[in-house]
């Protein structure tokens, strides 16, 4: 039994003849007759009584007619729901990311995208480390992942831009007189570092290694905001994403020389939902900071 057979059957009932039904559905009359006969054979009885100039329902046909109309209505409703979803999606979009980006890089793109899709709820899955993000996303968590560019990924990767890191210092630090600060000039300092399980810990260690030393800790924290504030209070320099510097501490932050940061990407599994596809497309169309020449990019 097919929707086409049901459509032909209902058309014959409405028009009162096979020839007029064929005109309505725009197919040849023999095709309509053939499909009706196939339907009757499947059901095991005649649905229509063929008269010289018309047709009428048999008792079996009268029982079957409301069921056929119900199925056709349900199919049309399903089509409209899907079409409406494609025009103006509703539902929930799940985004996986790392905690250090959730409050800095994502609010703007999410706000702009949701303005165009007001019926959609956003669910964020935030992970402390990029490795956990990649592992959990691979296992099926969320529709799309946004974070540091994955080192190993079988699905699609969409390059977005980069996130720069800056050094925060106390107001009386003489290094603030420089427009850019070299990590080598801070080699003898005790630093505000991140807890070892924090996703930024390895990234910061890479920058120090490139500068030729291992930073000594004055204090370790699991919060990026706390790192900036502890540095401003004089506990030691702190390296933080530029978007995580509290507004009132902006004058205490300086970029590095060479510039240092991490590549940002959106990545997906093989199957991408319509909602996720529109979100990834909006991300790619967005304005992301380009990587400056000579920048040091964390792996």
From TrEMBL:
Record carries keyword Disulfide bond: no
GO CC annotation terms, alphabetical: protein-DNA complex
Matching CDD domains: PBP2_LTTR_substrate
Transmembrane segments annotated in the record for this chain: none
GO molecular function: DNA binding; DNA-binding transcription factor activity
Family, as annotated: Belongs to the LysR transcriptional regulatory family.
Protein name: Transcriptional regulator LysR family
Organism for this UniProt entry: Patulibacter medicamentivorans
């Amino acid at each position: 039994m097919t929707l086409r057979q049901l459509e032909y059957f209902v058309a014959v009932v409405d028009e009162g003849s096979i020839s007029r039904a064929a005109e309505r559905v725009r197919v040849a009359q023999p095709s309509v007759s053939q499909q009706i006969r196939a339907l009757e054979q499947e059901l095991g009885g005649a649905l229509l009584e063929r008269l010289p100039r018309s047709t009428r329902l048999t008792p079996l046909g009268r029982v079957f007619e409301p069921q056929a109309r119900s199925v056709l209505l349900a199919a049309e409703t399903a089509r409209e729901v899907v079409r409406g979803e494609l025009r103006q999606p509703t539902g929930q979009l799940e985004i996986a990311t790392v905690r250090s980006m959730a409050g800095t890089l994502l609010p703007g793109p999410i706000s702009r995208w949701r303005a165009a899709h007001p019926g959609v709820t956003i669910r964020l899955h935030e992970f402390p480390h990029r490795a956990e993000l990649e592992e959990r996303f691979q296992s099926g968590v969320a529709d799309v992942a946004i974070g540091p560019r994955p080192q190993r990924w079988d699905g699609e990767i969409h390059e977005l831009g980069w996130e720069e890191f800056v050094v925060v210092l106390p107001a009386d630090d003489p290094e603030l007189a420089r427009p850019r600060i070299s990590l080598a000039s801070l080699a003898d300092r005790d630093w505000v570092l991140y807890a070892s399980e924090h996703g930024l810990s390895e990234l910061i260690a890479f920058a120090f290694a490139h500068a030729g030393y291992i930073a000594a800790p004055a204090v370790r924290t699991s919060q990026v905001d706390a790192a900036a504030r502890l540095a401003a209070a004089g506990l030691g320099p702190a390296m933080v994403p530029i978007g995580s510097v509290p507004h009132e501490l902006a004058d205490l932050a300086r970029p590095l020389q060479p510039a240092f940061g991490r590549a940002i990407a959106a990545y997906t599994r093989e199957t991408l939902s319509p909602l996720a596809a529109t979100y990834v497309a909006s991300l790619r169309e967005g304005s992301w900071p380009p990587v400056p020449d000579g920048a040091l990019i964390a792996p």
